[in-house]
Write a structure and sequence with these properties.
164 residues; alpha/beta; Rossmann fold; five-stranded mixed β-sheet; 7 helices; 18% strand; globular
């Protein structure tokens, strides 16, 4: 799905940047195309091009200030606070997808579960027994990647905890 987002707060320094980064990262991790515009006291950064806006399926606005909306025309618009952009990007993206008529991550998971249950039902039930499962060794812990370990104690993680 193609999305555009706008984040805006009165100062436009920390919160709108954090929301923009979180929304963009979350959307890209979920396989969506997204362009995020940031508005603040310093002006507009990464302004959404007209052709990108025209191709978008939905618009997400995470703002604590007014955002000029006349350019969105008939697009599906999801409005929320900057805090929601920082703390619940998945929820905003799910709402935008749902309102635009696409499948949300929860629906994708349900479909995958239903598909795996259907595939599993073709197996021979005679192989199943009532015996308890044997203990297995727990999966080995993996080392966090450099970016994960940097984010876990980084500024963004601390700010997210502060605003949650």
């Amino acid at each position: 799905m193609k999305l555009v987002a706008i984040t805006a707060c009165p100062t436009g320094i920390a919160h709108s940047q954090m929301a923009a980064e979180n929304i963009q990262t979350t959307a890209e991790e979920r396989g969506h195309e997204i362009h995020v515009e940031v508005q603040g006291a310093m002006g507009t950064e990464n302004e959404i091009p007209d052709d990108t806006l025209a191709a978008a399926d939905a618009v997400i606005i995470a703002a604590d200030t007014s955002v000029q909306q006349d350019r969105f025309g008939d697009h599906v618009v999801v409005k929320a606070s900057v805090k929601d952009g920082v703390n619940d990007a998945d929820g905003l993206i799910d709402e935008a997808i749902e309102r635009a008529g696409g499948e949300t991550a929860a629906e994708d998971a349900e479909t995958a579960t239903a598909d795996s249950e259907t595939v599993g039902s073709d197996t021979d039930d005679s192989a199943m027994t009532d015996e308890p499962a044997t203990e297995s060794t727990p999966p080995a812990e993996t080392e966090p990647t450099e970016s994960e370990s940097a984010d876990s104690g980084g500024v963004i993680a601390r700010l997210k905890r502060l605003f949650s």
